[in-house]
UniProtKB/TrEMBL annotation:
Its EC number is 4.2.1.118. Keywords: Dioxygenase, Lyase, Metal-binding, Oxidoreductase, Pyruvate. Pfam families: AP_endonuc_2. Belongs to the bacterial two-domain DSD family. Mg(2+) binds at H502, H575, E650. This is 3-dehydroshikimate dehydratase. InterPro entries: DSD, Glyas_Bleomycin-R_OHBP_Dase, IolE/XylAMocC-like, Xyl_isomerase-like_sf, Xyl_isomerase-like_TIM-brl. The lineage of its organism: Bacteria, Bacillati, Actinomycetota, Actinomycetes, Micromonosporales.
């Protein structure tokens, strides 16, 4: 399938946008009128530039406020349209998007809208062009996909079809199911956008908060499945209005966008097989002869479907019952199409649908590496010792140390070129099939590079995450430890730390959604519910990803707005959380004072959860924080101060299936770390 991206998705001038789209591997673009208007290039020049980059212009958009208006306005609108058709001819594009009118001049009259759109389609057809009519969710009289489809059906014009935009469809309550029954060939264009669930004005929601598929809450695989079931074979085009993407590096945004489409196509495989759409009679043809370029576009679908070798076999309906989830979806049309119904088709098996190497099962954290310098190195060493770690290995050729306790492994790497605060520079996870993990990463535009190494050293391939962290994928049996000479100090039980519970990675503001999609798609981790909380320096958002077995958890956090100027320069620390089976015993065994927690916190804790005085006193004695989830799972956890300017540690004890990260306690931690920094910095 062809992949396109609307120029509105990315930042910059038209040239920046085109270059980014081409570099990321897109086949085409939707050209936004505004990008054309501000461009120094002529339409023909834009066409040449696109051709040079291997891009087609798949859609020109938008044309606004056209239909169901008084005669005078209609005249003006038609002459405006003529000008646009001329521009489109120069651009070499044949489809224009017409959004449902938002004009106060528009009247609520479907017959009039139909008549006007037919008139426009006549004019378009005379130029060899066609109209894709899109119901904006805030359209004045037409705001749902089914309403726009009724009008398109009523017009029954070969040069008038639908533009379906997942945002407008899925942001409304009207179920999308009937989309599968739309006449083949009548969906002229498909726009894909995801979005978080937000209770807000739908126009604001659409213009500021759209996301690439897989980054939000919409069920886009199912939506795409419905559209493909209706025989759509045009481009999959991303149309994402997002305030952050509009001001981020377009090259990166375009890669993120392509990754989202690749994952979405692959997710089609998870859909139940859908019944093949029957050949609904194509539009009867008063306009057929005028609609030259697309007259032929419609029939191939119809005839291909009609000629399907399975057409008659399906009448025996062995698949009809297996297609349950979609059977009801197509219900209104099902009876009409039943005699022609073909066997269920796996949409993902269609030619041109990309499939990804499956994400192999992850089995845990192999190690976490900190980059340290002459200042932060000693601080981290002493912190690790205080937590019960032992320095067990020294790298054969580099200033790199291995520290261990239980199955927790920390690597301190002093081979840094730029001194600065300590940072989590890399983390390694174990995979049942690292080569497959790397192949998947490559297919998702996240190619691995080999770590610099010396002869005889373990080969570790690293994928670069959006924040620059190297993600290494190793096999549990890989002998990366043989790169380290034993120091002779054994890793003892220490303070009872068992494994890495999670990593906490604060993300750069511009790359938060990109990071979520990266870990979700590349490592196959699932998103856990997003949380927001009020922290001392502003509102924070936290979104964790994890494998189903919870052996690899990464909590991504970001400030909801770009950080204000007054917050300390280094206010976004990263951390490693270790799991223990008994936090109170572990706390007693530590030779490192935990982060002091204010008495007010414990008073509130007792009031909120009805804990016994004794228990609260014990928590307080050890600086342990507490949380309980609605199903009774409990978290006991403690934090350390910040070391090396930027990193800290956490120790967790999860009870009764607690599955979150103690987010309500994060502001307490942040305030305490801030307080400590103020009181201990000279
Ligand atoms: O917000 C808008 O105006 C707008 C314009 C064109 C579209 O395709 C769309 O989905 C929204
Ligand atoms: Mg749209």
């Amino acid at each position: 399938m062809r992949r396109s991206i609307a120029t509105v998705c990315v930042s910059g001038t038209l040239d920046d946008k085109l270059t980014a789209a081409a570099a990321a591997g897109f086949d085409g673009i939707e050209l936004f009128e505004n990008d054309l208007v501000v461009s120094p290039w002529s339409p023909a020049g834009i066409r040449r530039r696109c051709a040079d980059l291997g891009l087609t212009i798949d859609l020109y958009q938008p044309f606004r406020d056209f239909e169901a208006v008084p005669d005078e306005l209609l005249k003006a609108n038609l002459s405006r349209a003529e000008r646009k058709f001329e521009v489109m001819a120069e651009l070499g594009t044949d489809t224009v998007l017409v959004c449902s009118s938002v004009s106060p001049a528009a009247v609520d009259d479907d017959d009039l809208a139909t008549a006007h759109l037919s008139l426009l389609a006549d004019r378009a057809a005379a130029h060899g062009m066609r109209i894709a009519y899109e119901a904006l969710a805030w359209g004045r009289h037409v705001s749902t996909w089914d309403h726009s489809w009724r009008i398109v059906q009523q017009a029954d014009h070969p040069a008038l079809g639908l533009c379906l935009d997942s945002f407008h469809v899925l942001s409304r309550e009207i179920p999308p199911d009937g989309i599968a029954g739309i006449t083949p060939g009548k969906i002229f264009f498909l726009q894909l956008a995801d979005a978080p669930h937000l209770r807000m004005d739908v126009l604001q929601w659409s213009r500021h908060h759209r996301l690439f598929p897989g980054q939000g809450a919409f069920d886009l695989p199912r939506f795409l499945g419905l559209v493909l079931s209706a025989g759509y074979s045009g481009p999959l085009s991303l149309e994402v209005f997002n305030d952050v993407f509009r001001q981020s590096d377009p090259a990166r945004t375009a890669v993120d966008a392509m990754r989202s489409l690749t994952l979405l196509e692959d997710r089609l495989a998870t859909l139940p097989a859908a019944p093949r759409t029957s050949p609904t009679p194509a539009s009867t043809a008063p306009h057929a002869s005028t609609a030259a370029p697309h007259a032929s576009a419609t029939p191939p679908h119809a005839s291909a479907t009609a000629a399907a070798p399975h057409a008659s076999a399906s009448a025996t309906a062995p698949h009809a019952s297996t297609a349950a989830p979609h059977a009801s979806a197509t219900a209104p049309h099902a009876s009409a199409s039943a005699p022609h119904a073909a066997p269920a088709v796996q949409l993902a098996d269609r030619p041109g649908v990309r499939r990804l190497p499956p994400a192999p099962r992850l089995t845990g954290h192999a190690f976490t590496e900190f980059a340290v310098d002459g200042h932060s190195g000693p601080e981290l060493r002493s912190a690790l010792r205080g937590l019960g770690f032992a320095h067990t290995g020294q790298h054969r050729t580099k200033p790199v140390e291995l520290w261990e306790q239980g199955a927790c492994r920390i690597v301190l790497n002093s081979a840094v070129t730029h001194p600065g605060p300590a940072a989590i520079s890399a983390f390694a996870v174990t995979s049942e099939n690292p080569p497959l993990s790397l192949a998947r990463a490559e297919a998702l535009s996240a190619p691995a590079h080999l770590n610099v190494r010396e002869p005889g050293e373990a080969e570790l391939a690293a994928i670069t995450a959006p924040d620059g962290t190297s993600v290494l994928v190793t096999h549990p049996g890989d002998n990366w430890r043989s790169d380290f000479l034993p120091t002779g100090t054994p890793a003892g039980p220490g303070a009872g730390l068992l494994t890495v519970d999670h990593l906490g990675l604060t993300q750069p503001f511009d790359h938060f959604d990109e990071a979520g999609l990266f870990y979700h798609s590349v490592l196959g981790l699932e998103h856990l519910p997003t949380e927001e909380y009020a922290a001392p320096y502003g509102l924070m958002r936290s979104r964790a990803v994890s494998d189903p077995q919870r052996t690899v958890r990464v909590a991504l956090t970001v400030a909801l707005l770009r950080r204000g100027e007054w917050a300390p320069a280094v206010s976004d620390p990263q951390h490693v959380a270790f799991a223990t089976a008994d936090l109170i015993a572990t706390a007693r065994a530590l030779s490192l004072p935990p982060l002091p927690v204010p008495a007010n916190y414990y008073a509130d804790l007792a009031a909120r959860f009805g804990l016994t005085d004794d228990f609260v006193a014990t928590l307080r004695e050890h600086g342990i924080l507490f949380d309980r989830d609605p199903s009774g799972g409990e978290l006991l956890h403690l934090y350390t101060p910040v070391f090396g300017g930027r990193v800290f540690f956490e120790i967790t004890e999860r009870r009764a299936g607690y599955d979150r990260f103690g987010e309500p306690n994060a502001p307490v931690r942040m305030a305490a770390q801030r307080h400590r920094r103020l009181t201990t910095t000279p």
